[in-house]
Amino acid sequence: MRYRASSITSLALCLAVAAGACGRAREAKPAAESVKAAVPAQVTPVESPGALAIRREAQAYFDQARASFVARDVASSAKALRDAAGFFRAQAESASAGAQKALEKSASELGLLSADVDGGKTKVVASLDYVFARAQIAEARNHYLRANSALQKYDNARVGAELTMAVDHFQRAVKDGGETLGSAATKALADTRAAAAELMKGTIVARKDLDKTMAAFGKEIEGLGTKLERRKA
After folding, report:
1. Is residue 5 helix, strand or coil?
2. Backbone CA torsion sign across 224, 225, 229, 233
3. CA dihedral of residues 186, 189, 194, 197 (deg, nearest 10)
4. How far apart are CA 78 and CA 68, in angstroms?
5. Following CA atoms 128, 48, 220, 91 in sequence, which dihedral angle do they give, to the nearest 10 degrees?
6. How many whole angstroms separate alpha carbon 138 and alpha carbon 147?
7. Which residue has the higher pLDDT, 53 or 41?
8. Calpha distance 179→115 (Å, rounded)
9. Are the CB atoms for 37 and 157 separated by under 8 Å?
10. Cα-to-chain-centroid distance, residue 18
11. What's the rounded mean pLDDT across residues 88-96?
12. pLDDT digit string, tens, across residues 56-71
């Protein structure tokens, strides 16, 4: 994929900041074959460069549930799982139709797992990990679809941030599910993360290249989701 820095855009931004211009960024109308990145607003790294400051995560609940389960603190583990289920229900309420079903399913699965842990029915930590992996891929899909929506609005800083989060969740799903990545998936992730970083720092990205990168990543999300559906402890 090829990128070229937008020096004109950078100069304009510097002048705007110097003049104290803090109003709403105007939507750019890109040429047919390119996408001009918008200015990222108040970006704070969370896991990856460019992740949004407003990023909300269920990871803390997952970590607590797993650690408590390993420590045989059943009540604490079950509570963390219930909290995670509530998080995913809230996520589903604001998600697009394409992501909503998977998020709702994860909320339900986390709720059932909480009851099983609390009742002593869950015996191995892998039971938690596989549920977490499916929840992570549901989140990856959610952020991927948000990136597509932002792309249609030419909000390319948001595209970059959403893709960054999608890749992070994908990689967590791989880890929690005990999966390994082939060369095609590895390339798709690397290309997507690179494109996301360029978009967030104000680089012009060829639209045909971005479309190709996002299509490849979307295919990997669906493929991993299918694999994880079959994983049971």
Report:
1. strand
2. positive
3. -150
4. 9
5. 60
6. 14
7. 53
8. 27
9. yes
10. 34
11. 94
12. 789 999 999 999 999 9
Handedness of CA 141, 180, 165, 39 (dihedral sign): negative
CA distance 212 to 1: 9
pLDDT value, residue 68: 98
Average pLDDT over residues 82-86: 97
Map residue 44 onto helix, strand or coil.
coil
Residue with tokens 């992730």: 189
**What number of residues does the chain have?**
233
Residue 87 makes CB contacts below 8 A (sequence gap 6+) with: 56, 58, 61
The CB-side HSE value for 58 (13 A sphere, CA atoms) comes to 32
pLDDT at 56: 72
Question: What pLDDT shows up at residue 6?
Answer: 40
Q: Which alpha helices (H) appear in the chain, and where do they start and end?
A: 7-18, 59-70, 74-94, 97-118, 126-152, 156-176, 183-200, 207-229
* CA 93 vs CA 86, 89, 97: distances in Å: 11, 6, 10
Question: Quick one: pLDDT at residue 52?
Answer: 45
Closest CA to 63 of 74, 77, 75: 77
**Closest to 198 measured CA to CA, from 30, 20, 9, 2:** 2
Q: Which residue has the tokens 């400051």?
A: 53
Rounded to whole angstroms, what are the CA distances from 107 to 41, 112, 136, 200, 212?
31, 9, 12, 31, 32
> Phi and psi for 205 in degrees, rounded to 5?
-115, 130
Q: Is 20 helix (H, G, I), strand (E, B) or coil?
A: coil
